[in-house]
Design brief:
With 295 residues, the protein is α+β, with helices and mostly antiparallel strands. The chain is 27% helix and 28% strand. Bound molecules: 4'-deoxy-4'-aminopyridoxal-5'-phosphate.
Length: 295
């Protein structure tokens, strides 16, 4: 992925993609002092850009560092990363991390860096998306909020995601469904989860995983449609009562789920309606998005 044409925004400058390299003694690499975002641009507009930027800044604060760029500069960097690579529709990845000035658990002397890359990435699940993805039960659990910075989109939290996803892929699934430390249903490794059940939309309470921007968007769209949205504890054995299941995330967008480890679901009218509403919303000019979602 590093050997390709293009430009990457790095600490205020545009660097050729191949030259955007950092030192092996970077603190972010050794101790996961890194936070990131995943955003999508549609028709030349990054959907909910400011919310992503706010979450990036907040994620860094939770890890104890301040990104040395204003939110306006970060927003502009995201737009520039798309533009300079000739993209109107693409995926945007800002990352902030501690540098290589000091290598110990304590890292007070490190410089904070920020980069933004953008590339074309049609959907997290590629061609499998529209036929529905298959989830296997995850091999790791989402941690207790006192054991990990669960409100941050922190690189370190993705270690258990990658391990769980690899285990699920080895068993032939597209992704893992992760339970939390209590054994409750939480989310996939890079997207939140929804269940259509008893005429309502059910989703787990995000008390130990990311309360995604797409998750909140989908909840607003469902309510606009008069669909009741229920955030509640969902145990794995309740999933068989769902008529439909889907994932929601910036990279995953709205993706139907057709299987969870032996339980089969058919993408149906609720998923189709919300997938359509989401696809229409993300392609609206930003001002119209807010009007569409306003109560
Ligand atoms: N959970 C995890 C672990 C994720 O990586 C993501 C993607 N950022 C989400 C949920 C969905 O968040 P969002 O809708 O803000 O992209």
């Amino acid at each position: 992925f590093d050997d390709r044409d293009g430009m990457i925004w790095w600490d205020g400058a545009l660097i050729p993609w191949r030259d955007a390299k950092l030192h092996v003694l970077s603190h972010g690499l050794h101790y996961a002092s890194a936070v990131f975002e995943g955003e999508r641009s549609y028709n030349g507009h990054i959907f909910k850009l400011r919310e992503h930027t706010e979450r990036l800044v907040e994620s860094a604060r939770i890890l104890g560092f301040e990104i040395p760029f204003s939110m306006d500069v970060i927003d502009a960097a995201c737009r520039q990363a798309l533009e300079v690579n000739g993209l109107t529709d693409g995926y945007v990845r800002p990352l902030a991390w501690r540098g290589a000035e000091q290598l110990s658990v304590s890292a007070q002397q490190t410089k904070i860096h920020l980069m933004v890359a953008a590339w074309s990435w049609p959907n997290l699940f590629g061609d499998d998306r529209m036929k529905g993805v298959r989830l296997g039960m995850g091999s790791w659990k989402r941690p207790h909020p006192e054991t990990a910075p669960i409100r941050a989109k922190a690189a370190g939290l993705y270690m258990i995601g990658t391990m769980s996803k690899h285990d699920a892929e080895a068993r032939g699934f597209n992704d893992a469904l992760m339970l939390d430390w209590r054994g409750q249903v939480s989310e996939a490794t890079g997207a939140n989860i929804f269940f259509a059940m008893d005429g309502a939309l059910h989703t787990p309470i995000p008390d130990c995983f990311l309360d995604g921007i797409t998750r909140r968007t989908v909840m607003a769209l469902a309510r606009k449609r008069g669909l009741q949205v229920i955030e509640r504890v969902i145990m794995p054995d309740e999933m068989r009562a769902a008529s439909e299941v889907f994932l929601a995330g910036s990279a995953a967008e709205v993706t139907p789920v057709r299987e969870i480890d032996g339980l089969h679901f058919a993408p149906g009218p609720v998923t189709e309606m919300l997938l359509g509403d989401y696809e229409a919303l993300v392609r609206m000019p930003p001002a119209d998005v807010e009007a569409r979602l306003a109560a």
